[in-house]
Amino acid sequence: MKLDFVGKRYYFIALSAVLIVISIISIFTKGFNVGLEFIGGSEVVVKTSQDLKIADVRAKISDLAPEFNNARVLEVKALGQEEEKTFSIVVAPKDEKGNLRTYNADEKAKLSEEIEERLGGKVVSFTEVSGDAANEIKNLTWKAVVFTLLGILIYVALRFKFAFGVGAILALIHDVVITLGFYSIFGIEMNIAAIAAVLTLVGYSVNDTIIVFDRIREFGRKFKGRDMASVVNDSINSVIFRTINTSLTTFFVILMLLLLSTGSIKSFAFGMTIGVVVGTYSSIFIASPVVIKWVKSL
After folding, report:
1. Model pTM above 0.85
2. Dihedrals φ, ψ of 189, to 5°?
3. pLDDT tens-digit profile of 134-150?
4. pLDDT for residue 177 is more than 90
5. For residue 296, is pLDDT > 90?
6. pLDDT at residue 79, rounded to an integer
7. pLDDT confidence of 151, banded at 50, 70, 90?
8. In whole angstroms, what is the distance from residue 191 CA to residue 183 CA?
9. Is residue 44 a contact partner of residue 115, using CB atoms and an 8 Å limit?
10. Rounded to whole angstroms, how far apart are CA atoms 57 and 61?
C-alpha cells in the first residue's frame, strides 16, 4: 500500500505551524522553569514523610532568611516514592551590593538543620552555582546549539544538495522549537540535562532525515525523468516502516525512564520522549516534502 505523503504535505505543514505557534506563545508568555545552572543560586533538596503541599513548605521556610521569602519550591515526583515527598527549594542569596552570592559552610549547615526541623525531613543535597558560572554555562550552551545546527547544515549540504541541507535545518528547528514549547507548557525544568536531550534529539532526527534523503537520491538517479514529487513520495514509503519501528523501540525505553526517574534524568527523558515523536514526524512529513519545489533533479 502506497501512502500519499507528498500530496498531503500542506496539511502536515499546517499542523506543524500550529504547534510551533503554540510553542512560541508559551515560551514568550509563560517562559521556562529554568534550572539552577542557568540562573545561579542555591538549591536545597529535602525529603520528608509529612503530607505537605508546596504552599505548606513555602510557609514553613519563608522566614529562614530574606531570600527564602521568594523561594521557588517544586515537588519532585517519581514512581515508587509515594510514602515520602521530595521538594526542591531554590533561592538566590544576595550580598550587600545586591550581587548573587553563595553560602559559606556554617550557613549551609545551619540552614540545612533549620529546614530539616521545620519540614520534618532530611536534606539530601545542597547545590550552589555562582552567577558567573551560570552566565558561562548559558553562553556555552547557546554556542553548542548554534554550532551543532551549523555543522549539520554544512554536512548535509556537502553530502546532498544545499536545498536538502536547508530542509534538514528547517526540520531540526521545527523539532527544537516544539520540544522547547512542551518544556514550557508542562513546566519541566530546563537544565543542562534538558539541553543534552535537545542536542541528542538533533542528532537522532537528522539521522532519520538522512535515511530518507539517501533513498530520494537513490530513486532519483534510478528513475531519471520522473516527477520529483513522485520520487520523494516513493522514497518515504520505502523507509517509513523501518523508521517507525526504530523510533518505537527508542520511544518505549525513554518513556519508562521518564516514568521512573526524577530530577535531571527526568528532564532529559521528557525531552527525548517528546523529541523522538516530533523528530520522526518531521523526518517523514516535513524535511523531504518542503524541498520538492527547490530540487528539480538529482
Report:
1. no
2. -60, 130
3. 778 878 888 887 888 78
4. yes
5. no
6. 56
7. confident
8. 11
9. yes
10. 6
Exposed/middle/buried for residue 293 (C-beta within 10 Å: 0-12, 13-18, 19+): exposed
CA 49 remoteness from chain centre: 31
Q: Minimum mean pLDDT among 9-18, 159-168, 259-268: which range?
A: 159-168
- Sign of the C-alpha dihedral, residues 149, 5, 297, 218? positive
284: cell is 517523514
**CA separation for the pair 153, 169 (Å, rounded):** 6
Report the sign of the C-alpha dihedral through residues 224, 226, 229, 230, in that order: negative
Whose grid coordinates read 529546614? 115
* Chain centre distance of CA 53: 27
Q: How far apart are CA 15 and CA 233, in angstroms?
A: 19
Residue 293 banded pLDDT, cuts 50, 70, 90: low
Backbone Cα Rg of the chain: 24
Question: What is the residue type of 168?
Answer: A
Residue 46 has pLDDT above 70, yes or no: yes
CA terminus-to-terminus distance, the chain: 26
At residue 31, φ and ψ (nearest 5 deg) are 80, -165
Mind giving me the DSSP string for 72-130? EEEEE--TT-TTSEEEEEEE--B-TTS-B----HHHHHHHHHHHHHHHTEEEEEEEEE-
Record the cell numbers describing residue 5, joined without a space: 505523503
CB 264 within 8 A of CB 193: yes
